[in-house]
Amino acid sequence: NYTLHRNGTSSSRLDLSYNMPLAYFFTIGMAFFITCMILVYSMSKSFGQSFMIDKSHGILAIKAFTSWDFKVIKECSVKLMSENICTQLKELLAEVNQNNVSSTALQKCGRLMVHGLAWTICTAATAGCAMSIYLFSDYMHNQSRAGAGAQGRLQKEASLLALPVLVSLINLLLPGLFNLASWFENYHSPSVRTYVSISRNLLSKVSVLCVLCYHWLGRIATDTTDHIKCWESFVGQELYRFLIIDFIFTLLDTLCGELLWRFFSDKVLKKRRRPGFDIAKNVLDLIYGQTLAWLGVLFTPLLPAMQILKLLLLFYIKMSSVMMNCQAPRRPYRVTQMTTIFISLLCFPSFIGAAVCVTYTMWSTKPSVSCGPFRGLNKMIQAGKIWMKQLEDENPNLSVLARAYAYLVENPLFLFIGAGIFLIVIYFHSEVVDGERKIINILQEQIENEGEDKKFLITELQSIHEQKRVSRKRVARQNSGCYSGKLRHDKPLE
Questions:
Q1: What 3-state class would DSSP assign to 375?
Q2: Per residue in 341-391, pLDDT tens?
Q3: Residues 31, 36, 41, CA angle at the centre, nearest 5°?
Q4: Which helix (H) or strand (E) holds 18?
Q5: Based on CB atoms within 10 Å of each CB, which residue in 277, 448, 449, 465 is the most buried?
Q6: Rounded alpha-carbon distances, angstroms, from residue 132 to 138, 314, 472
């Protein structure tokens, strides 16, 4: 709990001091730094695996003749490997066939109009939902300020759950509208359909989180009334409620949307038609929950532990639901390449957005006066400045560290420079990967050209061999004719 942390320095019997505000500040900073390094490493590794793979159609022959691992001897492993290779071949063939699809100019114009209408509807629905969350949160905040002492305990708890329920309901229903629009658009490529679904779901999630961050940091944190004693604890409890309600709605979606539909299809419709697993929606729901956990690290340090428990439960529940209730897509496509997209979305805007919000809270928002480790300070960042001043007073030789802290940590320019260097490293790494991919394409073209040269040489050798064989036959016929004429000429008269 954020409220229980002290705002002073505690000493032990061994004359060792423990500065709680400073420890809190640097623990949060190190947690975000380590998470950032892990995400960057995972993203760079995924980029290398995604874009350095071969792109030519010769991969079909490679998959068909060189994919089998002869060291596998167990029956279950053999079956799994054969199914995996079969799925990969279907995906590759589907990509080759999609490139051969052609349409007329009128069909392209009609499809563009349908896509434009679908995007307009989805964008308007997202904007309407974000505006409804903004207005409802403002209404609930004003109601809470007006009736702070008149509400009963049960009524107050119910009012606190209203906003998380509304947001989770929107996150549950809005992807259904996106899927309906995608069904009307009738994309030929499942990959394109998934990318469009990712874009629309990402737009809705980012809009909702932006409105919520404004509600927490723009309304709750700056409220000057006394109905919220500790706004940090209130925001932490709010994030905890959002995480729990989101988990409950995910379970309801799994049970009602997948399990009940399977029973209805099997028992009532008497058909084996089952729902498909919406990859974009489910993965972005996970990213949404992880973003809430990162936002709540500053206010509820144990919130990531709740998120880990939630992810473990969701993994086994979703895995069982997919195996029992869902069916494979009719058009195969390579979902493995989308791992890079999802890791990139987890890094930006999820992690970067959460880090910006936490940094803004530490640098610009005034802490509560009556609770938390930063009480009595104008900004949370001042905890480090006070500690540096104490070190400088106790030991003047450490004044260099105080100046370094003032120029490096407190100066926002250093953060921008660090972020710029970070982005430059990612850019150069992507350029290196792009260069390696171009080299691979050039080598593949050289191999194909060498193959064409060998075909040409073999054809020329065959033609030369054929000409020599024909000339030998002609010479043999001429020699045979000369020999028979000579015999007729030399035959004695009877």
A1: coil
A2: 888 888 888 998 998 899 888 888 888 887 777 887 888 888 777 777 777
A3: 130
A4: strand 17-19
A5: 277
A6: 10, 29, 92
